[in-house]
Amino acid sequence: LPALLFADKDICNSVSHGCEQVCVNTEDSYICKCHEEFILKEDGKTCRYKDVCNSADHGCEHICVNTDDSYICKCHEDFILREDGKTCRNKDLCKSIDHGCEHVCINNNNSYSCQCHEGFVLRQDGKTCRYKDVCKSVVHGCEHICVNNDDSYICKCQEGYVLQEDQKACRRCTEGPLDLVFVIDGSKSLGEDNFEIVKQFVSGILDSLEISPKAARVGLLQYSTEVRTEFTLRQFSSAKDMKKAVLQMKYMGRGSMTGLALKQMFERSFTEAEGARPFSANVPRISIVFTDGRAQDEVSEWAARAKQNGIIIYAIGIGKAIEEELLEIASEPSYKHLFYAEDFTAMEDISEELRAQICEALKMSAHQQDPASGRLRKTGPQPSGPESTTIAITDVIACPNLAVHHKYLFEDSHTHSTATASKDKDQCKCENLVTFQNYATNEVRKLTQRYIL
């Protein structure tokens, strides 16, 4: 009976059918259907697009693939899907990103690393490359030795040579500009035979130098009871003439006034009047002092003055030479500037070692460093002798009434001091540079003890 009652009725319009799109009557019921391009979902009522990928803004970079009522993104061959599920990257990561590798990019699972071509190494940034051996990869121009220095290079010289101003060419240590004054003991204790050995020693040193007005200038003093200038720095411009003068030196053969000789060396031998170059030229000033016994006068004052004025002193003692005097004469450190032997048979060895030490001093000068003697750096031309000397004290040293970081004017006792100089001397209790250094050393020692203890 119910079937007959509903036979001619439109059930879709008489009930809440729930069809999303189309309701279709059947004999005694209804079914839901969908519009074209849609398909019915499993609930039998709602619809979905047959092709979701074409119906929605799926965002797939490469390929959209329908899955029931949704979709998934896929990538073309040789690509893989990124974590966002939409975009793709090359399976070869190096090709898919701006890796920044200068030479070669190597894939490493989900990452990469940079490598360099043969003959190169990776820099610390992990991307750029440099030559393993820069010296072999460029025309470096080094005359002797090229040394790799990170991604650049520096030139160095073989032993016995120093680098010239162009930082490429080399010259012998003793080819450089140098003002050298020998101070030779001609006392009676030496003897004429040994005096001849000393002359040979001087000639040997001269053979290792390039003697010329622009290179090495050499002067020589002989001392005994008095001091005699055998030749000045300006007198000879060739080794031949100089060696001839050495050969013709007459042995004085009397007392041993070493202090007097040091005084003349300091006051006269290194003056421009006798051929020394001005301080502004930065030419090393070296004195080689030879003695065979105890001095008959005081050596410490004039040795100290010479060293404080920038003269490097090498002391050579033979036989009865007194170690204490040699230490007073020689520059610091003594192991580089003091030579002693029991007799004259060692003169050749001393000559060789002395040439090596002079070479080292010239290397330091070439690099504009202060010599190992610890002397103070001068601020400009400084006259030797009785003229006042300006020294730049760069260390800050505690004086009673002021911190010393200034230029002090020290004058010899026989010159007239300026008011400022006298005031500074009183404040620091300094009458000359030697006293000042001693005072400063004591003050530093006191401060050290105070803060340590």
Automatic annotation (TrEMBL):
This protein's UniProt keywords: Coiled coil, Disulfide bond, EGF-like domain, Glycoprotein, Repeat, Secreted, Signal
Keyword set includes Disulfide bond: yes
Gene Ontology CC terms, in alphabetical order: extracellular region
GO MF entry, a single one: calcium ion binding
Compartment(s) where it occurs, according to its Swiss-Prot or TrEMBL record: Secreted
Chain residue ranges for the region called Disordered: 369-389
Domain VWFA: from-to ranges: 179-354
Annotated protein name in UniProt: VWFA domain-containing protein
Naturally occurring in which organism (per UniProt): Athene cunicularia (Burrowing owl)
